[in-house]
Structures are given as C-alpha cells and as structure tokens.
Amino acid sequence: MTEDARLVKILDLLLNLTDAGRLDWESVGTPRAPKFATSLADASFVVYSKDNDGLSPHVLELQNNNGETVESLRTKTALRRPIRNEQETEAEEERRAATRAVNAKLRNLYNEARRNAMNVDAFLDSLVDQLESQSREAGAD
Predict the structure, then answer these.
(1) pLDDT digits (tens, 9 = 90+) for 115-135
(2) For the sheet containing 26-27, what is the strand order?
(3) Rounded to an integer, what distance in angstroms lies between the CA atom of residue 108 and that of residue 111?
(4) Class of residue 28 by CB neighbours under 10 A (exposed 0-12, middle 13-18, buried 19+)
(5) What is the pTM of this model?
(6) Spatial distance between the Cα atoms of 115 and 101, rounded to a whole number of angstroms
(7) Helix (H, G, I), strand (E, B), or coil: what is residue 6?
(8) Coil, helix or strand for 42?
C-alpha cells in the first residue's frame, strides 16, 4: 500500500522549504532523544529518529494546534526483491521504488531539520574562521 499522496506532497514541500532556508526548525527533544519541529499557523511538524540514533527509522508527525498528532509518516522496510526464479511485477517494482523514495526524503528532512535547528552551517563557518586565524598567527611567528 502506498502512502497518502498528500502526506508525500507535504514531505516534499517541507524538504524543499527547508532546503531553501524558508523554514526554521528548533530542537524540541533531549540530547538523548533529539526531535526537531517547525510550525505553521495551523499545524506543527516534528521529525525524529524512532531509535534516537539519527538513523532510520524516521518519523514525521503532523500535529494540530492542540499538539495532537493527527497523522504521521514513517520510513518503511522496502518490499523484498524477488528470488532469482521469481518474477517481479511492474506494480511491485513501482511500490518498492516509491517506498525507497519516501524513505530517502524522510531521512533527508531529518538531516536538514537537524542541521537547521542546530545552526550547523554557522557553527562550521565560525570554526573555519577561528582555525584560519590561528593558522595565520602561527605563520606569522
């Protein structure tokens, strides 16, 4: 069974807006169980790693104004590939490909939301500046 097309569309839009820097994410979990959230006027979105390890399975929760999870999208195990003598139907192949695509998008959203919430780019830029400054000072000695 494939995901609701609207959920996949929401996932696509969240990923695109995050990549474009148009959504701000914040850390709402704990260091041991990181979760990242962003909000619109009528909804919030929370993305996290179910095992708290940053790896799959990932979950995207869609919450209403009361903080209740109305719907969620989770990474799924892709359908198994057919054994050597079995034939895979075109529909099975399409479902497997769709599952892999949603899994990849959800993983990417988690990673981008984490980077945004933790301000990773500014942190890395600051480290580069500091190290370059120290390197210049060391070269002047």
Answers:
(1) 999 999 999 999 999 999 999
(2) 26-27, 35-39, 44-49, 58-63, 69-74
(3) 5
(4) middle
(5) 0.83
(6) 21
(7) helix
(8) coil
Kindly indicate the confidence band of residue 85, based on its pLDDT and cuts at 50, 70 and 90. low
Residue with the two structure tokens 């892999």: 100
- Read off the tokens for 15: 């990923």
In the block, which residue shows the tokens 């148009």? 22
Question: Taking Cα atoms as reference points, which of 94, 104, 105 lies closest to residue 9?
Answer: 105
Residue 76 tokens, joined: 């799924």
CB proximity list for 114: less than 8 A, separation 6 or greater: 25, 34, 36, 54, 120
- Quote the tokens at residue 48: 């996290």
| Both tokens assigned to 39 | 């909000």
Secondary element (H or E) of residue 73: strand 69-74
